[in-house]
UniProtKB/TrEMBL annotation:
<dbReference type="InterPro" id="IPR017871">
    <property type="entry name" value="ABC_transporter-like_CS"/>
</dbReference>
<dbReference type="GO" id="GO:0005524">
    <property type="term" value="F:ATP binding"/>
</dbReference>
<dbReference type="InterPro" id="IPR003593">
    <property type="entry name" value="AAA+_ATPase"/>
</dbReference>
<dbReference type="InterPro" id="IPR032823">
    <property type="entry name" value="BCA_ABC_TP_C"/>
</dbReference>
<keyword id="KW-0547">Nucleotide-binding</keyword>
<dbReference type="Pfam" id="PF00005">
    <property type="entry name" value="ABC_tran"/>
</dbReference>
<dbReference type="GO" id="GO:0016887">
    <property type="term" value="F:ATP hydrolysis activity"/>
</dbReference>
<keyword id="KW-0813">Transport</keyword>
<dbReference type="Pfam" id="PF12399">
    <property type="entry name" value="BCA_ABC_TP_C"/>
</dbReference>
<feature type="domain" description="ABC transporter">
    <location>
        <begin position="2"/>
        <end position="250"/>
    </location>
</feature>
<keyword id="KW-0067">ATP-binding</keyword>
<dbReference type="InterPro" id="IPR051120">
    <property type="entry name" value="ABC_AA/LPS_Transport"/>
</dbReference>
<dbReference type="GO" id="GO:0005886">
    <property type="term" value="C:plasma membrane"/>
</dbReference>
<dbReference type="InterPro" id="IPR003439">
    <property type="entry name" value="ABC_transporter-like_ATP-bd"/>
</dbReference>
<protein>
    <submittedName>
        <fullName>ABC transporter ATP-binding protein</fullName>
    </submittedName>
</protein>
<dbReference type="InterPro" id="IPR027417">
    <property type="entry name" value="P-loop_NTPase"/>
</dbReference>
Length: 262
């Protein structure tokens, strides 16, 4: 579904992404792990059009999407969430969801005068859709609560809900578990699995919580220093010598050798 081919992103002399090549299979929940500074979020931003790559190519279902802006990718069904949730603070949770679909009739001045019936019908449909999403995510009790009054984990669920308002094809989740308690994290994980299995959403997840990755993701891709080190099951990734080097600074072979020499 998504193919990243030899992508580089440089900031001056710093190579944040340094020749990354990987493939995201349609219908998968792919984990993206690596130490801090590995280039994971920068790669997300390149794929999602937030940043233009220095070089390389990104395709989606065979179409070259390299450098396309986020709003264009949004309409193609590619969405991303951020480590810190971005909500409309003064609006209710339901209103936050109703804001998502684009090209609403009420956005055009002419229709506010001569298309009021159409606007009312659209709003009724959007309200019903938003309520269905809130129920799916088990936060229907927050429908009329202001978004700035709910917890961090509930805001993450609300972000996930926004992707459901437009029928996303692939969603990039950046540290969805950051600052979220274990109970809500399990709720988020269950919602991701249901969306994957029941609605064929494809997900790519950046996360440091290995239990969460283990519950959701197969395959798992590990990055370090802007490069893709390994891809496979989490068990395979954990046993990979290059991955151990990246996380611990020394691999099992070196540790074993040091033990023998001692």
């Amino acid at each position: 579904m998504i193919t990243v081919d030899d992508v580089h992103k440089h900031f001056g002399g710093f190579h944040a992404v340094d020749g990354a090549t990987l493939e995201i299979v349609e219908g998968s929940i792919t984990g993206l792990i690596g130490p801090n500074g590995a280039g994971k979020t920068t790669l997300f931003n390149v794929i999602a059009g937030v940043l233009e790559p220095t070089s390389g190519r990104v395709t989606m279902s065979g179409e070259d999407i390299t450098g396309l802006p986020p709003h264009t990718l949004f309409h193609k069904g590619l969405l991303r969430t951020f480590q810190i949730a971005h909500e409309f603070r003064s609006m209710t949770c339901r209103e936050n969801l109703m804001m998502v679909p684009g090209d609403q009739s009420g956005e055009r001045l002419w229709n506010t005068w001569f298309g009021r019936r159409r606007i009312a019908e659209e709003e009724r449909a959007l309200r019903a859709k938003a309520d269905e999403v809130l129920e799916f995510l088990t936060i229907e009790h927050l429908a009329d609560q202001r978004a700035d009054e709910v917890s961090g984990g509930q805001k993450k669920l609300l972000e996930l809900g926004r992707t459901m308002m437009v029928g996303a094809k692939i969603v990039f989740l950046d540290e969805v578990g950051a600052g979220v308690n274990r109970t809500l994290l399990n709720t988020i994980g269950d919602a991701i699995i249901r969306l994957n299995k029941e609605r064929n959403y494809t997900f790519v997840v950046i996360e440091h919580d290995m239990d969460f990755i283990d519950k959701l993701c197969d395959p798992v891709i590990c990055m370090a220093e802007g490069k893709v080190l390994a891809q496979g099951s989490l068990a395979e990734i954990k046993a990979n010598e290059q991955v151990i080097e990246a996380y611990l600074g020394t691999g099992l072979k070196n540790k074993a050798k040091a033990g023998v020499e001692a």
